[in-house]
Amino acid sequence: MFTTRNFRHHAIFFMGLSVVAGLFQNLLYVYVGPDLITRPAFPAYFMTATLISCTATVFLLRSYYLLHYRIALLTGLVAFGTALLRTMVLYCLLVPLSRAPEQYYPVFLVLELVAALAAAISLIWSRAGKNGWLKAAGILGVLIAVCALALLFWSFQMHKGSSTPSLERFQLFLSFFAGLQPLLFTGFFSQQSDGQEGTSGQSTLLEAARVISVAAIFFTGVGLFGEAIKAIHPPKEAVRLAGVSAARIFINPRGDTLSYRLLKPIDYDSTQRYPLLVSLHGGAGYGTDNIRQLASWEIQQLSEPENQKKYPAFILAPQCSRGTSWGGIPNLVARDTIVFELMSALEKEYSIDPDRRYVAGGSLGGYGTWYFIGTRPGVFAAAIPLCGAGDPTLAQNMKEVAIWAFHGENDQNVPVEGSRRVIKAIRQAGGHPRYTEFPERGHYLTPGLDATPGILDWLFSQKRQVKVTPESGRN
User: Fold this and answer.
1) In whole angstroms, what is the distance from residue 207 CA to residue 194 CA?
2) For 438-467, what is each residue's pLDDT tens digit?
3) Which residues contact 229 (CB under 8 A, 6 or more apart)?
4) What number of helices (H) and strands (E) belong to the chain?
5) 306: which DSSP letter?
6) 398: left (phi over 0), alpha (psi -120 to 50) or beta
7) Alpha-helical segments (H) within 163-259
8) CB 414, CB 363: distance < 8 Å
9) Is 193 helix (H, G, I), strand (E, B) or coil?
10) Looking at residues 77-85, what average pLDDT do you find?
11) Are strands 324-325 and 333-334 parallel, antiparallel or unpaired?
């Protein structure tokens, strides 16, 4: 064998560090869910962990070269290259630098998995397979790659590539097993005998790399852990409102349930009619706690004491669980029907003005806002879709609704074209929607909304325009 003691120690160190980094990320994913990758600190941690994994892989490939495992080296290099390519694309989407390669990401992922499968097979059937540790790593690699490919194709066949809670659980399960593979490679390195010692310069450089790697993974990990803790616990502004609104559960005639909060007008008088605002939360409101949906911009604004007095209204804040939506997003179960059933039930319980129903929401809720007014014409007097995307083919249904839409020019989560297209279609259909696009702003619109005067004045001045037909005139 031709590896040195220092070589083995460094290789084992980076392999072990990559296992720790992967395990830490997976554990956070268990507690936070897919929203983990949307945390601002995630790209830095992701790239740090990737660089550590790449360093460990370089040690492994060099060992293949020194031991003349030519087939393992060739397939390993191809797998390494495709993994780097896929990682670069993913990083561009995470930061985000560009959304252009998003449509090609599944292709890069398939290439990486196929290359990883070939590399794993080579560890079983080539000369490298004579080593028990490498053969075990190859068997595990084959199982992981085959399962991942099957899961990917199943996702596209059954869900057109969209994620579901079941798919996410399978992916997490595979990710945990994939994190075990470097442990088998450490066994391979530990059994190598000593060869010629490396130079002191190389040793010093690698020692510095070890220190930098530990420091980088620690500091980026601490940042990600802090943001994960915030993501697990509901925002404090939502908790504050949970104390002044009752947690409710609506059960429809089919036995389906929907958790929601209802904020009532101050000094509610049943002899008066009040507007109803339906607030549809974004992705951050997902859950089952019946709290975090209260952090929406419109709810926070209307919960201010002066606004409660100025705009007395019912505020309905339903909450949906992950894997569902309010509508308008393909392959996610829409929860729109039960929301409308809940609205009908509330209008029987309280004195609500049917001509002053409003709907608002951001991101996931922005999609839902467009979907509500597009699929239920005549229900809402006004809508405020924030950084969402509507269906231009439903423009005819939306032209009579008072709309004030908002979007950030540089939104990388929901591209601004989603708002531009539907606004254009509504105008072509004869509608007169208002549209505000914040230049150089991304997905987070709160500063721009806070600086825009008159939003609530405009909203609560709107009334549904009920057209009188000859038939209705005779009733």
Assistant:
1) 19
2) 998 888 899 999 999 999 999 999 998 765
3) none
4) 18, 10
5) H
6) alpha
7) 165-178, 181-190, 200-232, 236-242
8) yes
9) coil
10) 95
11) parallel
Q: What pLDDT is stored for residue 472 in this prediction?
A: 35
User: How many alpha carbons lie under 13 Å from residue 261 in its C-beta half-sphere?
Assistant: 27
Cβ–Cβ < 8 Å for 78, 118: yes
Place of tokens 């507690």: 31
Q: Could you tell me which of 450, 359, 451, 364 has the C-alpha nearest to residue 413?
A: 364
Residue 468 has a pLDDT of: 40
Residue 460: count of CB within 10 angstroms of its CB: 20
Place of tokens 């939306």: 398
Locate 67 and state its tokens: 């031991």
Q: How far apart are CA 76 and CA 112, in angstroms?
A: 11
Please give the C-alpha separations between residue 74 and each of 71, 126, 269, in angstroms, as whole numbers.
5, 11, 78
Q: Mind listing the pLDDT tens digit for each residue in 213-246?
A: 999 999 999 999 998 887 777 888 888 888 888 8
Rounded Cα distance, 175 and 172, in Å: 5
The three-class DSSP label of residue 348 is: helix
From residue 404, give the alpha-carbon distance in Å to each of 101, 198, 219, 349, 449.
31, 68, 42, 30, 12
Tokens, residue 158: 């059954």
Q: Tell me, what's the pLDDT at 297?
A: 94
Q: How far apart are CA 386 and CA 394, in angstroms?
A: 18
- The structure tokens listed for 354 are 């049917």
Residue 121: in which H helix or E strand, if any?
A: helix 105-125
Say how many residues make up the chain. 475
Give the Cα-Cα-Cα angle 406, 410, 414 (nearest 5 degrees): 65
pLDDT given for residue 76 in this prediction:
96
Task: Kindly state the tokens that stand for 201.
Answer: 């310069």
